[in-house]
Design brief:
By secondary structure, the protein is α+β, with helices and mostly antiparallel strands. The protein has helices at residues 2-13, 15-35, 40-78, 82-91, 97-148, 155-180, 195-204, 207-213, 230-247, 309-319; strands at 190-194, 216-220, 225-229, 256-264, 269-276, 323-328, 334-341. The strands form two sheets. Strands 2-4-5-7-6 form a five-stranded mixed β-sheet, with helices on one face. It is elongated, with a radius of gyration of 35 Å.
């Protein structure tokens, strides 16, 4: 079927030449009728057989040439160097040579610019990752000092240092996760997790931020078991906490984060709702809070945001097959809902 379609396309592409051949045959058939009426039928039969044979040979030669052009064109697109350009010109009609040379010049220029950009991006990524690892050294030193010299500090100074350390650590983690977004291989390890216990464990690393902001933590619902990657899920929860501490504490005297579990029978999913009582997000901003760099318009919730935290959360949720939704009304806080699909063991 494919070959028949190819033959039809070939005939259609050169229909004007075949039409002229048919008109010429009709003219010679008319001359044969006038000149040789007694052998008219024989001459017409021979002429039709010869015409059909010529058409078949022409189609065969055209299709063969098109295959050669197609192969040369594919090589030219994969690597538009001068050798492949010359090979394509050799098998193509001479009238197409100027266009082929212009395309080759444009493609080579584009490839050179792209290679330069790839090298610059690789250098930038290496620099950022190197800088992040260098930043871990003073963080480790700060942790060592806080663990071993805390008795020499006042409680207020120690709390402030812990607060700054945790903020810096969160920023470093965001940079690392952002750098890993484009990685070809991601080391996710899916395992069974008790969701509420895991949330309590994750909160311990952010306890100083919560204490500094005066947050209260509330857990609602039954303990449920889900299947996910611990590091990735911890990153999502940490970013939700950081997002809330950045905004809710500035607008509430008694800021609170609530972790609530539920089961949705309709979608057969375990749901974790993370809710704060901050200023919330305006209706026009809500559909865009997971977009890269989006910091909101009039909503007070995103006034000091960088637009990267929730963007990274959405990317991580996609990698972990978590259905992520956000609901909010101005003045009622923001709720992030994480839907974990049920996995059969």
């Amino acid at each position: 079927m494919k070959r028949i379609k190819h033959i039809y396309e070939c005939l259609h592409a050169h229909k004007q030449w075949f039409f002229m051949l048919m008109l010429t045959n009709l003219l010679f058939i008319f001359f044969a009728w006038l000149a040789y009426p007694e052998t008219f039928n024989v001459l017409v039969s021979l002429m039709l057989v010869f015409t059909l044979a010529m058409i078949a040979v022409s189609v065969f030669l055209i299709m063969r040439k098109e295959k050669r052009i197609e192969a040369a064109f594919e090589d030219f697109l994969l690597e538009p160097n001068e050798a492949n350009e010359e090979m394509l010109c050799r098998v193509s009609p001479k009238t197409n040579w100027p266009f082929i040379r212009k395309i080759g010049s444009a493609l080579r220029s584009y490839h050179e610019e792209r290679n330069e950009q790839v090298l610059e991006l690789a250098d930038y990524e290496n620099y950022i990752e190197g800088w992040v690892h260098e930043m871990k050294k003073p963080l480790s030193l700060m942790t060592l000092v806080l663990d071993n010299r805390s008795d020499e500090m006042s409680p207020l100074v120690r709390q402030r240092l812990l607060h700054v350390r945790d903020q810096m650590r969160g920023d470093v983690e965001r940079i690392l996760y952002y750098a890993r977004l484009g990685a070809a291989h991601k080391d996710y390890l899916f395992e069974s997790i008790h969701i509420l216990a895991f949330c309590k464990q994750t909160i311990e690393d952010y306890q100083t931020l919560l204490d500094e902001s005066g947050f209260q933590i509330q857990f609602i619902g039954e303990e449920m078991e889900i299947l996910s990657d611990r590091k990735g899920l911890a990153f999502i929860i940490e970013q939700a906490i950081a997002n809330s501490t950045k905004h809710a504490a500035q607008h509430q005297d008694d800021p609170m984060i609530t972790f609530e579990t539920a089961y949705d029978e309709k979608s057969d999913q375990t749901i974790l709702h993370i809710h704060d009582n901050g200023p919330g997000v305006s209706e026009e901003d809500l559909p865009f809070i997971f977009d890269k760099g989006f910091t909101g318009g009039r909503g007070a919730y995103t006034r000091q945001a960088t637009g990267m935290g929730l963007f990274l959360v959405s990317k991580m949720a996609y990698d972990l097959a978590i259905q992520l939704e956000a609901t909010s009304e101005p003045g009622s806080g923001l709720t992030l809902s994480l839907g974990f699909p049920k996995v059969k063991k």
